[in-house]
Amino acid sequence: MFDAQMTRKVNYTIIILLLAIGSCKHEPLDAPEGQTTGNGGGNGGSTDTTTFCDPDTIYFEQQVLPLLVSSCAIPGCHDPGTAEDDVILNSYLNIINTADVDPFDPDGSDLYEVITEDDPDKFMPPPDEYPPLSAEEVELIQTWILQGAQNLSCESNCDTTNVTFSLKIEPIISTKCQGCHSGGEPQGGISLTNYAEVRDVALFGTMLDAVQHTGDATAMPYNSNQLPQCEVDLIRIWIENGAPQ
Question: How many CA atoms lie within 13 A of 125 on its CB side?
């Protein structure tokens, strides 16, 4: 008798617990700041971990790589075809593996040493051939190394209003293009050092095809990934509007 009553009580308890568990509703966890959640897991879902740009963080893909590709990974220097001194500066792995980058230690990194070198024979880019990196660009590389020389990427809001040369296009050209297209012997004979030069190429050349990697134009940036879609869109809108200053 006692055993039968106890068995019924245990069974009732189990049923109540199962009903309670089945009725639980768990609120989704908030995404970490700068990220969004998705359907992660093993059932074919994907997790969106887009990082939005933090002004205090240096992002390799958006800031460091375009600078090195434009100023260093050019034909005759540190592109894959030339690989001067066995250094190739066209991708994260090549930069880390061939430029002796020591995370958190700029002074112990050859990449930083050569852009701050006092000896003109060792200074990079070669001063008799190309313009030096600006103080801001040198500081950018220094800070990237101090932050661990990480392969970070981010996304920012794309503001396609008021697309003028001075506001939206000049920063792209100076960072992503002038390393190759400036100086006494610019690549392809195309100089992009001021508004008039950029406007002429944009309106009468193949700039849009080059940055969109379409048509017969040589894809730009040379030997590198396409510009972020936002920057491509800004260049397209600027050209379509007549390349205003």
Answer: 26
Per-residue model confidence as pLDDT tens digits over 47-102: 334 578 899 999 998 899 988 988 888 888 898 888 999 999 989 999 999 999 99
- Locate 108 and state its tokens: 């112990």
The two tokens of residue 165 are 């040369």
| Inside any domain, residue 70 | yes
Of residues 143, 140, 150, 196, the one with CA closest to residue 173: 196
Say if residue 112 is in the same domain as residue 178. no
How many domains is the chain built from? Answer: 2
Q: What share of the chain is helix, strand, coil (3-state, %, to 5)?
A: 45, 0, 55
Q: Indicate if the pLDDT at residue 103 is higher than 50.
A: yes
The tokens for 236 are 């397209």
Q: Is 66 in the same domain as 122?
A: yes
Domain membership of residue 100 as a residue range: 60-146
Same domain, 192 and 222: yes
Quote the pTM value: 0.59
CB neighbours of residue 53 within 10 Å: 16
Amino acid residing at 110: D
Q: Which two tokens stand for residue 133?
A: 């990196």
Nearest to 228, CA basis, from 95, 74, 65, 35: 65
218 pLDDT above the threshold of 90: no
